[in-house]
Amino acid sequence: MRRLTWYSFVRLFHRIKDNLALVTSFRHLWKTNRPLVVLVGGMALLLALYTYLLLIIEGNYKERQKLLIAIRNMADGASLLNNQRTMHEHKERSSNFPIITMAPFPIDGDRIEWQPPDCEPRQNFAFVKVHKAGSTTAQSIFLRYGYVHNLTVMLPGGKNPASFSWPNLPSPGDAYPVSGGVYNILTHHARYHPETLRARMPPDTIRLAIMRHPLDHLKSMFNFIHLNTKYNLDPMNPIQNFLENLTDYAEIDSKFYDGRSPTRNFQSFVLGFDQMKDFGDEQIEQQFRDRTTEVPFVMILEHLDESLVVLKRLMCWVLTDILYDWTARNYRRFYYKSSSLSQLAIDNHHKWSSIDYALYEHYNRTLWEEVRKGGKDFVLELEHFRMMNSKVNEHCRIDPKGSRSFPATKWNAAWAVDAQFCRQLRQERFIWDWKLSMRQNEKIRRERLNP
């Protein structure tokens, strides 16, 4: 036992005095500035907890992975009984058709043995990739489909590797040549041009596109090319400032974006219309009738999942063909995205982009007609697709190098997601372009060596 000396008693006395002073100071601070004490104390506690958890996670990473996978597998048995939407909710726009929401449904339908579709998959298609309308997500699905099924994809051969002659119509020499000279898939940026499609693609090619609500599209375009600063608009609500003063901006707007208007009928422009005209024009209305016949189905971004299930049925594809990565592509947050607009601004936009509104309303109505035709079976398949897409995205996020098996159901054969599928699910366009060009160039090389 240590000997107690006079010096030890002195040190103990000073420690007690210091602690009492500290307590007194704390009591004074607590009385005078209690919120600050609570805030600082809470932050310190959270920091300590975060550090503790970080040390545990770093020290037991493999165990954590096994635990998460085990929990996930345990949840599978109950997920069909109480599946809730985990996908982000698409907000309802100016449509009379509500977003489908599902109550928990029984698993009896899933016990039905999967039967392959009694039709041939449609593998020749041209997708009109509309800027800022969710088209990159759709393009990723189509590029994966083309690569997995060994199809020939039309790749840009000009200066811009992402588009064909933009903003002009496609020309004969702006695509890389391929074996046979005929393409199965078009999915890069290109203005819709029926003559080009007839010359380069098989006669049974189906034409597809994607659109979004015109007002949301305008906001996204504003943010994408920074029109709020380039037009020197009111920083608090540039969209309203622009739409309420269209006569002041119309002339410079039509000359700003490669000689085209980035704000007026832009989606219609990509679909081959003259964007500077209005829907009431006789020529435009005839073109509208022709276009809606030539392009039978257009996906709607606000109802992407419903659109993909309709697409699957239309194309006679399988569920794995339409799975997609939830990671937002080309997504940017901007403060005026949800800004409210005056009725004057909304009315002006309807007049300014009347062709866009006519097309959007037509194809949105067409989508919901297909959903209603599908009845209860469509609703069940839609919910099953959302559940499967959720599980696949979860697996690829938690265990991207592992594998996971899925049993056969009424809507899909038994299959397994593996590291390759996870990689393809998130693969960027330029990687697909490189892989496809290597494969397609190899075919040409072999033909030249073995004529």
UniProtKB/TrEMBL annotation:
Membrane-topology annotation of the record: Single-pass type II membrane protein
Matches recorded under Gene3D superfamilies: P-loop containing nucleotide triphosphate hydrolases (3.40.50.300)
Pfam families assigned: Gal-3-0_sulfotr
Domain of life, source organism: Eukaryota
Membrane spanning residue stretches: 36-57
GO terms of biological process kind: glycolipid biosynthetic process
Molecular function as annotated in GO: galactosylceramide sulfotransferase activity
InterPro entries: Gal-3-0_sulfotransfrase, P-loop_NTPase
UniProt key word Transmembrane: yes
Keywords for this protein: Glycoprotein, Golgi apparatus, Membrane, Signal-anchor, Transferase, Transmembrane, Transmembrane helix
GO cellular component, one term: Golgi membrane
Family annotation (PANTHER family): GALACTOSE-3-O-SULFOTRANSFERASE, PUTATIVE-RELATED
Protein name: Galactosylceramide sulfotransferase-like isoform X1
Lineage, top ranks: Eukaryota, Metazoa, Chordata, Cephalochordata, Leptocardii
Record gene name: LOC109480831
